[in-house]
Amino acid sequence: MSEAISPSAAAEERWDVIVIGAGPAGYAAAIRAAQLGMRVACIDKSVDAQGKPTLGGTCLNWGCIPSKTLLDASHKFVEASTGFQAFGIEASDVSINVAKMMAQKDAVVAKLTNGVASLFSGNGVAWLPGHGRLHGHCAVEYTPAAGDVAMLAAEHVILAAGSAPIEIDPAPLNGDTIVDSQGALEFDATPQRLGVIGAGVIGLELGSVWARLGAETIVLEALDEFLPIADQRIARDALRALRGQGLDIRLGARVIGAAAAQDTVTVTYQDKDGEHELEFDKLIVAVGRRPYTEGLLAPDSGVNLDERGFLYVNDLCATDAPRVFAIGDVVRGPMLAHKGAEEGVMVAERIAGHKPLVNYDCVPNVIYTHPEIAWVGRTEQSLKADGDTYRTGTFPFAANGRALASNDGAGLVKIVADAETDRVLGVHVFGPQASELIAQAVIAMEFDASAEDLALTMFAHPTLSEAMHEAALGVSGRALHMVNRRRA
Ligand code: FAD
Ligand code: AMP
User: Is 197 close to ligand 2, i.e. is its CB under 6 Å away?
Assistant: First the structure.
């Protein structure tokens, strides 16, 4: 089946599956369903900066991929500016060409979004650019970018409409000086003074990018606690490290107003000492994301929303409407690309009669600061709050040969294991390549490993992974490269 299909031709088909939304959740579902022999169409309304339809949703176009490209670019810039010196590499007059950095980011995005288009055509998924709206009995109203509206019929529908940035009244976006995460990925120069509202994952990542490139960056966070969802020790160490890099993170600072002038924004925030004003050249509003359901459901769709505006689904991503599923950011659970993609695969396989499940206890979380922060499973504080008994093992990268060899010895690995069974309940990493290291913890937990299982495993030397091994040994007080207070 060709990827270009007219609305009228689409209306003549009886589709096995229509997916609405081609982000990582929707495109994974569409590809997997097609692999399983189903006739699949995927409707998506996203267009790129040139107005051309694009696949990949937020993740590929305005999220994970462009942000990681800029994080890598800005990290290389810091390395070249100051990091190389420790190795005797003299680099003078290091400068950043923001336009070239952005062009590189755009090239990466184009490569990956075109890659999804190739996967669609290679797997026989029909790509229908435009808007989709669900009616009753799996009927989908398709409004193409150009051309007539068509009513499509399907056996099953998968809703994967994703999420959108939350906007707040005190700081209305103007697309120039006050922007959301998408705008912050498109600055044409490094702002001299940058404000960020929200010290969540997105605020920290985007704040890091521009702070590394030289912006005086102030992050205003309403909560008194930094990263409450992460391990408390790691959150504390990360806060210190990020502040050390020049990110001025102010906790307990609630933004209550932002007034844009010609080229500046005056922000008012409140903390325990009263009201304060700050002036910025750019302000990024990064206060979270909300499920995106605008125009998605006709009144007769049969799909319900939950009390927070997410599409209501059960553990298997089934909505209240027969044969209609919903996946990704538009449903409960962490707003992460890999979580949505796994839900997409599960739903496609369930439609085909298989019985897979998504293990929501094993969703890895990553914050791509430097050092990176990554974790999976339970935190010590949540176990404590539940009255569960556990043991921990920690190991610092400062005692890891490979980390020191690359002059990257900040951070630690922490493993939390059940006190009785020794089963690994959570793994928390703050350090170099934490995003990669966490995968070994996810695999271990998927296989119900004990800390002893990890301790008995041989790790290559010298590697960062040895810190994971040592932390596992540490659960029973027998880390080798550390003086153990608790001997076993
Ligand atoms: P989306 O990717 O939002 O895709 C939904 C698609 O559906 C969109 O293209 C939308 O236009 C389309 N759509 C919606 N309604 C309709 C309709 N009615 N008709 C037709 N089309 C419709 N996650 C990670 O896991 N790792 C990261 O490093 C990471 N970094 C991020 C950085 C930033 C700056 C941002 C903003 C997000 C980041 N995320 C990251 C989150 C990640 O992007 C989302 O979790 C992921 O994109 C969700 O996938 P999805 O398929 O559910 O929705
Ligand atoms: P996340 O949902 O992880 O992206 O984080 C968003 C962060 O923004 C949360 O930690 C919120 O506490 C914070 N936040 C929301 N509104 C405001 C505000 N008006 N001022 C400062 N921080 C805010």
Answer: yes
- In this prediction the pTM is 0.97
Using one digit for the tens of pLDDT, what is the confidence trace for 370-390?
999 999 999 999 999 999 999
Give the span between the Cα atoms of 450 and 433, in whole angstroms. Answer: 23
Is 214 inside a domain boundary? yes
Ligand nearest to the CA of 286: 2
Give the residue whose CA is nearest to atom 19 of ligand 2. 255
Q: Which two tokens stand for residue 338?
A: 């890999």
Question: Domain tally for the chain?
Answer: 3
Residue 446 CA to ligand 1 centre (angstroms): 26
The verdict on whether 461 is a catalytic residue reads yes
Separation between Cα atoms, residue 218 and residue 223, nearest integer Å: 15
Any idea how long the chain is? 488
CATH (domain of 382): 3.30.390.30
Nearest of 105, 96, 138, 126 to residue 33 by alpha carbon:
126
Taking the centre of ligand 1 as the mean of its atom positions, its distance from the CA of residue 26, in whole angstroms, is 9
User: 142-179 pLDDT, tens per residue?
Assistant: 999 888 999 999 999 999 999 999 999 999 999 999 99
Please, which residues bridge with residue 285 across strands?
197
Numbers of helices and strands, H then E, in the chain:
14, 21
- Residues 353 and 377 placed together within one structural domain of the fold: no
Looking from the CA of residue 171, the nearest atom of ligand 2 is 19
Catalytic residue among 75, 276, 461, 469: 461
